[in-house]
Fold this protein.
Amino acid sequence: MTDKFTFSEYKEEYTLEPNRDLFCYEELDMNDKDFLKFVESHSRLHARKFEGLKVELWTFTAKRWDSIGDLYKRHVMKQSINTLYPSEGWFEGVSDSSKCVFALLPETYNIDKPFRVSWYNGGGPINHESFSTREEALKFMAENKVTVKEGALDEIVGTERWDSFLPTIMNSYNGIPLF
């Protein structure tokens, strides 16, 4: 027979830090309290079985807790994407954690991955990544805690720092030795 656990028993048995929120290392703001609300509101199939019990006393197998946790992460990610970013078009924003400007752009070189996220600092372009779907690109931006800010790239392009670093960056892209 497969063992069933309450959420706190599951954390005790299957996590290294049972006293911390299960989602404390996730990119987005997730916590045990909201997770249990999610479990309660999305587990209508179990409503009769657990009728009258607080959600903290509901029991599932470890595998089921894992799958519910994955559903919760996807739910929060989708909710964040829908809340934080425009549903269409191209835009730019800033990430306070990395101090970079990010831009969602059309990918012009890769027909299989039509969406590109490029990121920049005051000295010029840093890197870019291509994505097959808009949702993948927005997820990447959400994971980097990018908030939409119109004109963010315009604020750093053409500054003294940008103009002095950009030729060096372009030379390195073209294979010209820096020294």
